[in-house]
C-alpha cells in the first residue's frame, strides 16, 4: 500500500511538471472548480483562475527538476504529495529552489485531481 | 472563512514550534495512532513512534524561525498548512532552511490533530 502511494505521487509529479514545462494550459485538466492554489502567497480558486495564473507567469519557458517526492495517504482516499526541486529559466544562471505540496482527491474513474496546491520559492 | 483558516494555521504553527523548541515530548499531544510523519524521507506512523523520532533527533536544543505560513481548507473540515523557515542549532553558524506541511483534522472538541506531517530540509 505504501509503495502504491509513492508510485501514484511520483507519477503525478512527473505528469504535472511535464505538462507545466511543455503544455502549460493543459494543467487545467488537473483542477476542478473547488480547487485551491496558493502561489507565493497569492490565493486563487477554480479551474479558470488557476489556469490563468499559471499561464500568465512572467516566463514562457521553464524546466522543473525534481529533487524529492514524499507521499502519504490522506483521509477519504486522497494523497498528500510534497515535492522539492529547482526551476530553471532560460538565460538565468541560478536555478530557483522551490517546494510545493498537493492534496490529490480520487475521482470515480481512478484518476486524481488537485484539491489543494501550495507553491513556494525557497529563499535564503 | 479564509481569514479564519489562516488564523488557525498560524496558531497551530506557533504552538507546534513552541512545543518543539521548549518541550519536545509534549508534541505527542498533537498526533493520533493514525498519524503519519515523513521526516527526511523516513516514514513513521503512530503517536509513540513519531514522538520517539522527534525526541531522538541528534540535537537537544533548537529554535525554529518561521518565514512563511500558507493555509487552505481541505475536505472533511481539515486544514493543510505549509510552512517554510529556518532551524537554528546551538553552535552552528549557518541556519538550516526547512519546509514542512501538515494536514490537520478537526476533533470533536474544536481542536485539531496532525494526520499528515512531512518535513524536509532545503538543500541547494
Automatic annotation (TrEMBL), chains A, B:
Alphabetical list of InterPro entries matching this protein: NTF2 (IPR045875), NTF2-like_dom_sf (IPR032710), NTF2_dom (IPR002075), Nuclear_transport_factor_2_euk (IPR018222)
Matching SUPFAM superfamilies: NTF2-like
Keyword flag Nucleotide-binding: no
Keyword NAD: no
Origin superkingdom: Eukaryota
Any Pfam family matching the protein: NTF2
One GO CC annotation: nuclear envelope
Residue ranges annotated for the NTF2 domain, each copy included: 8-121
GO terms classed as biological process: mRNA transport; protein import into nucleus
Subcellular location field: Cytoplasm; Nucleus; Nucleus envelope
Swiss-Prot/TrEMBL keywords: Cytoplasm, Nucleus, Protein transport, Transport
Annotated function: Facilitates protein transport into the nucleus. Interacts with various nucleoporins and with Ran-GDP. Could be part of a multicomponent system of cytosolic factors that assemble at the pore complex during nuclear import. Has a role in nuclear-cytoplasmic transport of proteins and mRNAs.
Subunit structure: Interacts with RAN1.
Protein name stated in the entry: NTF2 domain-containing protein
Species: Gossypium klotzschianum
